[in-house]
Amino acid sequence: MHISPHTDHLIDVDATRAKMEQIVADKGGDAKDFETRAEILALLKEMLQAGRDRAEQLLHEDGLGILCAIRLSYLEDQIITLIYRFAIEHVYPVNNPSASERLAVVAVGGYGRATLAPHSDIDLLFLLPYKQTPWGESVVEYILYMLWDLGQKVGHATRTLDECVRLSRTDMTIRTSILEARFIDGEKPLYDGLIDKFDKEVLRNTSAEFIAAKLAERDARHTQQGNSRYMVEPNIKEGKGGLRDLQTLFWIGQYAYRVRRGKDLIKAGVFTQEEYTRFKKTNNHLWTVRCHLHFLTNRPEERVTFDVQRELSSRMGYQPRPGHSAIERFMRHYFLIAKEVGEITRIFCAALEEDFGQQAPGINRFFAAIPFPNRYSKRKIRDAEGFLIDHGRISVVSETVFSDNPVNLLRIFELADTENLSFHPDAMQAIHHNLRLIDNDLRNNPEANATFLRILTSRRDPESVLRRMTEAGVLGRFIPEFGQIVAMMQFNMYHHYTVDEHLLRAVGILSEIEKQELEEEHPLAHDLIPNIKDRVVLYVAVFLHDIAKGRPERHSPAGAAVAQELCPRLGLNEEQTEKVAWLIMEHLTMSQVSQTRDLSDRKTILDFCNVVQTLEKMRMLLILTVVDVKAVGPGVWNGWKGQLLRTLYSEAEPILTGGHSQQSRDSRVARIKDQLSTQLEGWSQKEIDQYLDLHYSAYWLRTDVANAVLHAELIREADKKNQKVATSIKAYEFEAITEITILAPDHPRLLSMIAGACSAAGANIVDAMVFTTTDGRALDTILINREFDEDRDERRRANRVVDLLVQVLRGETRLPPLVDQKESHKKRFKTFRTKPKVSINNDLSNQATVVEVEGLDRSGLLSALTRTLSALNLDIASAHISTFGERVVDAFYVTDLTGAKITNTDRQKAIEASMIEAMIGPSKPNQGKGKRKGKS
């Protein structure tokens, strides 16, 4: 067999065959002997491993993944050939084989393409002329058992030539596998007969059927994988923009154009030489990542998860740059390649549509980013010289429409939006050929900028049009600052998409809110947006809020500086520009305050009002905050975050409008007490008066009437039953949280024990409210993330948490071992480098010191933090828990045991050091025995 220069030195076939024959000779010629087989297997295992090691070494040397896949396929071919030849010559020899005692070993599926990832399955077809014979069955069984004993996963089928043809007519998977069938060894005429019969009886006149099936498969696969090529943990094989997309194109090319090699698509007129070069480049890069990934994980791993990205970037030679880690540069290159796959798909399908569009209308889905109605074949667009509608899609009369007037490179997208049209492939091709026309002259052209601004602020579907502009390369060139963040990922578990994808999704969500489509999910934003005075400011701010990601400096002030430069170019006046810059500067403020500050603390609200200053700015900031959080990724937004934002807004609104902001604390406490008194049905006045004296003012200021009623009934019932520990559960479907209230004897480690029990039970705490009664009991409320959709299921789960909690509080269960059981839960967080930080601030609250910690999340962390604070003799008035992927930001409002702030510098340093130690790793329970102060 001819040895390719790419596959030389992987295995010495002749030497290996000679060794195999020598083993048989040494055993007296008995090839079926168990020891003979064991020695043959050991030899082949050694050869296979040596070949794989050599392939990995060459991958490190030349960095060419496609050659690695070819080498591994060649190595597998040789191993299978050696086994097959050994089987028919030594184990089951036939001196005069009959016509039925013939066999062809054929590679199919991915292996049939002569490319093989390090841990991919081996797909084999054992091809027979007629029905199976005992000889054929024995040979096939010998080959398979040898491969299995070599540790390989083999997909296999044994079929006659007629069976292959018959089954491929009705089964598209079998049809696709035979389409890529490649001869390995055995009876070559059998294989040739299959290819000829398959071509005549299956392929002919069925191209449209095959194309439609493969496009449907592609759509279903993309939906299953998240339907975005910009997922930050992409599936390199099955994800959008991955290898399977390129393989689908080649399958269709093979089928529709009867080609066997990729470069034959040039002769078929599908690709130009330059386009085919791009095809090979993207294919090679994806194969390079995939081969490194398989070698690194030592398994058939296809997802580029966070825990492998660091090592992959190192293996592939990426180096850090200012503002970008090596990992982020590696992943950005990956996403640019995935984007290129999309462009190649568009080019390929343009050719398909030209040749097969009428027979396979499903091809049109590749261009239907915007739904369009059926229209007559071709017509001009009024007041749009040079453009026309071709079968319901916008196209150009000729490419000179762009060179004659480069503004048309933007106008075509505005027309697509206003006319509700998708793009004809000819138009996209023409745009691609004229991208060089987007220069500084066009960027500074007032008409071009006004056109872009109308696209961005469209009341129809701005996200879809901006997405097409991005895919076409227009948006990144016209707004170079946007071009810098195209395909940029952030190496963290919080953001699910690349920066550009996040911004486009944010614009889309804003458009949905403005069209009143998200009332149920975002009621306050829904109510506020009709009152926004300048929607242009809001749209531009949403589009630009993360535009400075990836720079060495903080992205919020850097983004505000970008807005100061860019907004006047887009046509915004000075006042609008200042508003956009302010929104970008403060776009994280409202989520940070709502999630990490005590919203019942008057100073929190006053400080926030000093930042926003006007009701209009707060309205816009709230809407920007909602779309920003929701566009991060699936599951990041929940109703509890929405409730926190609404609470902050409602607390700040009267201050900004000059309403009831001067209302005294005493009058607010008196009002809620009066409201509660009227709702305590069946209570005597004496009982009511005694209960109202049970709580300090902080409780009344931070608790609404509905919850105050529930607490009153809980405490009254516990007193009747003489219960030391009592609990209640309330599930909130809309907010996506479950509230657990615990009444127990007060002591310093209570919140720590509660946090530990929740951690052991797998419950994620998102907030905590801590109150102490005048008779020395604690009334603590924790909010945990909801896990089940049905209230019945969620309550069962919450009851399990409560049962464990009660056991811990009663001393029936020791907590530390339970927490330790969960320590392996977040092993993958170890790949992140997050330095723990602790800040101690006395300016955020008039009553308490705020201890804020930031660092890497781990199971049992909250328990460790609260345990540490208790050991330091600090009283936790409230805790605010925020998780951003692998990173936590927790804020604790604390006082000393006399109810005073922590002002001593040495004590502050001791708190900081202890909290840093707790952040770094699991700490042992400290037996501090300070009594929690009775006033929270």
UniProtKB/TrEMBL annotation:
Activity regulation summary: Uridylyltransferase (UTase) activity is inhibited by glutamine, while glutamine activates uridylyl-removing (UR) activity.
Top-level division of the source organism's lineage: Bacteria
Reaction(s) the record says it catalyses: [protein-PII]-uridylyl-L-tyrosine + H2O = [protein-PII]-L-tyrosine + UMP + H(+); [protein-PII]-L-tyrosine + UTP = [protein-PII]-uridylyl-L-tyrosine + diphosphate
Domain ACT, residue spans: 739-821, 850-931
Annotated region (Uridylyltransferase), positions in chain: 1-381
NCBIfam families the record matches: PRK05092.1 (NF003467), UTase_glnD (TIGR01693)
HAMAP family registered for this protein in UniProt: PII_uridylyl_transf (MF_00277)
UniProt family annotation: Belongs to the GlnD family.
Name the UniProt record assigns to this protein: Bifunctional uridylyltransferase/uridylyl-removing enzyme
Organism ancestry: Bacteria, Pseudomonadati, Pseudomonadota, Alphaproteobacteria, Hyphomicrobiales
